[in-house]
TrEMBL record:
<protein>
    <recommendedName>
        <fullName>SCP domain-containing protein</fullName>
    </recommendedName>
</protein>
<keyword id="KW-0732">Signal</keyword>
<feature type="signal peptide">
    <location>
        <begin position="1"/>
        <end position="19"/>
    </location>
</feature>
<dbReference type="InterPro" id="IPR014044">
    <property type="entry name" value="CAP_dom"/>
</dbReference>
<feature type="domain" description="SCP">
    <location>
        <begin position="77"/>
        <end position="185"/>
    </location>
</feature>
<dbReference type="Pfam" id="PF00188">
    <property type="entry name" value="CAP"/>
</dbReference>
<dbReference type="InterPro" id="IPR035940">
    <property type="entry name" value="CAP_sf"/>
</dbReference>
């Protein structure tokens, strides 16, 4: 789970449950095994072995208060980075926006950073929403950033997150944030003809010219 970069200064090196209470008292995010999460997080859903990350990062309190972001700015940040590496721009898709919002709210509700919820991993979550996509799904998650610039700066400093953003195959993106819990989802349509041609894409639109595919 490629998320520790955001919390490197806050999370102790040990992920043992024994360190959980001390980290919680200090109001710092604490890594705990996903299999143990229901013991420490009220009403947290049980995640089966095929669904859960090795651990979740639990916040005693919300990491930030931000609940919205500038969609045009985020798209521009992603596409400028991709195009600087000779890659095609991505566009927003309504299904991925829904996917990201559902997961951002899940993380906010339980105050955790994770790639899984009770529906499963990202592919399972797409299926639960009735979305039929190809086999490539990528996701970045994080917490604590108060703007799209800040979360993108954090993600691009992490090799794993940066690799997701710069994947040459992705065509669609969805981003959402809830109480400082961020989700950035990428996917490829099953039929490549469904993806917009680069010449028709406004890689860095204004807020008034932002287009969301459906």
């Amino acid at each position: 789970m490629n998320i520790r970069f955001i919390f490197a200064a806050l999370v102790s090196a040990s992920s043992a449950v024994a360190g959980f209470e001390a980290d919680t008292r200090a109001a710092y995010p604490a890594p705990i095994p996903a299999s143990q999460a229901p013991r420490y997080i009220p009403n947290f859903p049980w995640l089966g072995p095929g669904q859960a990350d090795q651990e979740v990062i639990y916040y005693p309190q919300n990491p930030a208060t931000v609940n919205s972001y500038n969609m045009a700015t985020m798209l521009c940040l992603v596409n400028r980075l991709r195009m600087s590496h000779g890659l095609q721009p991505v566009v927003y898709h309504s299904s991925l926006l829904s996917l990201a919002m559902r997961h951002a709210l899940f993380q906010s509700r339980y105050k955790v950073i994770t790639h899984a919820d009770s529906s499963g991993e990202i592919g399972d979550r797409l299926t639960a929403l009735g979305i039929d996509w190809a086999v490539l799904f990528l996701e970045n998650v994080g917490g604590g950033a108060n703007s799209e610039d800040a979360i993108m700066d954090a993600w691009t400093r992490s090799p794993g997150h940066l690799a997701n953003i710069l994947n040459p195959n992705i065509r669609f993106m969805g981003v959402q944030v809830a109480n400082g819990f961020w989700v950035q989802d990428f996917a490829v349509p099953r039929d490549s003809r469904y993806a917009p041609t680069p010449s028709t894409v406004d890689a860095c639109p204004t807020a008034n010219n932002l287009y969301i595919y459906a």
